[in-house]
């Protein structure tokens, strides 16, 4: 484990931060705690910093907290006070200008919008790709053309009649129209064909190298990422296990690729889980009715049979 566990207050440096000058970090999380309602904390004293120019892979098993972390960084949840989750030295939640200006961009798993009590609903409707893309105000026409060409978008596509991958390309194009300073990507390349994915990753690399933008990218697909990413952050059950430069990951030096390294990490997690004793008693325990599964047979359930 690097960057965590050996100091009183663990801190993940995923961007070559110098330990001071946190105001220069693109992303800075200090002592973050977060729990979903009615559940034990997913994050407890979580720390992370990402510096400008970094392309940081966010890795971990299903349910380890990647999406939750990205949504918190995107300012979708209020977590702690103004100083706990900082993006570009501003509070991710409180500073709405971050998103409105396009400095902070988030591209999530599904293209949806939040509608009052209905929660997240998928975007529907008969709109053309042109209507969607040109509807984004203030975009630089040169950048827009570049993205349309890069993502091979046909402006005549009707959004309710295109494939998942085509819809995703329009979503990505719209999300990147403004030159972001911090981009949060939650597995948005799954639907892209190989050529589009590689061109998209090249475009992102340029954005970091030329403008000093920072990217945090959660994914389970590692093809081509060994040479693309600069840093790696690995979380397990909401706990930061690794935050290091890719070139400093020892396991990568002796392994064929990132895929097999991450596979080994995930398998060792599973093994540890299996070793946990299930019960301290030698006798099988009876489940109390109050903690029973709703599918456990009971007299009340008889009414539904
Ligand atoms: N809206 C929610 N309400 C309650 N619990 C949630 C909610 N969303 C996620 N969780 C729980 O929080 C934990 C972390 O979920 P999260 O979606 O952040 O994981 P993840 O690492 O992104 O997983 P995956 O790789 O499958 O996308 C999981 O145990 C999940 O069940």
From TrEMBL:
Protein name, entry field: ABC transporter domain-containing protein
- Similarity comment text for this entry: Belongs to the ABC transporter superfamily. ABCI family.
Residue ranges of every copy of the ABC transporter domain listed in the record = 27-262
- InterPro entries xrefs: AAA+_ATPase (IPR003593), ABC_transporter-like_ATP-bd (IPR003439), P-loop_NTPase (IPR027417)
Region called Disordered, residue ranges: 1-23, 272-305
Organism expressing this protein natively: Eucalyptus grandis
- Tell me which stretches of the chain form a coiled coil: none
Q: Which UniProt keywords apply?
A: ATP-binding, Cytoplasm, Nucleotide-binding, Transport
């Amino acid at each position: 484990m690097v960057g965590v566990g050996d100091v009183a207050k663990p801190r993940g440096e995923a961007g070559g931060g110098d330990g001071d000058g946190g105001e220069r970090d693109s992303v800075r999380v200090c002592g973050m705690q977060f729990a979903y309602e009615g559940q034990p904390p997913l994050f407890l004293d979580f720390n992370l910093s990402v510096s400008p120019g970094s392309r940081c892979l966010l890795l971990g098993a299903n349910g380890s907290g990647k999406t939750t972390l990205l949504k918190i960084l995107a300012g979708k949840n209020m977590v702690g006070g103004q100083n706990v989750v900082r993006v570009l030295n501003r509070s991710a939640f409180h500073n709405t200008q971050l998103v409105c200006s396009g400095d902070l961009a988030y591209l999530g798993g599904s293209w949806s919008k939040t509608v009052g009590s209905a929660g997240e609903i998928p975007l529907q409707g008969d709109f053309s790709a042109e209507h969607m893309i040109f509807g984004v105000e203030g975009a630089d026409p040169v950048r827009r053309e570049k993205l349309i060409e890069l993502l091979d978008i046909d402006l005549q596509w009707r959004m309710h009649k295109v494939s998942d991958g085509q819809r995703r390309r329009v979503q990505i194009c719209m999300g990147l129209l403004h030159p972001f300073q911090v981009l949060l990507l939650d597995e948005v390349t799954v639907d892209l064909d190989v050529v589009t994915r590689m061109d998209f990753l090249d475009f992102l690399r340029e954005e970091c190298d030329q403008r000093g933008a920072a990217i945090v990218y959660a994914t389970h697909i590692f093809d081509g990422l060994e040479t693309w990413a600069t840093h790696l952050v690995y979380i397990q059950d909401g706990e930061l296990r690794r935050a290091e430069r890719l070139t400093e990951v020892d396991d990568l030096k002796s392994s064929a690729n990132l895929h097999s390294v991450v596979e080994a990490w995930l398998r060792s997690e599973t093994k540890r889980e299996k070793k946990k004793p299930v019960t301290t008693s030698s006798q099988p325990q009876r489940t109390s009715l109050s903690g029973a599964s709703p599918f456990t047979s009971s007299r009340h359930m008889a009414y539904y049979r």
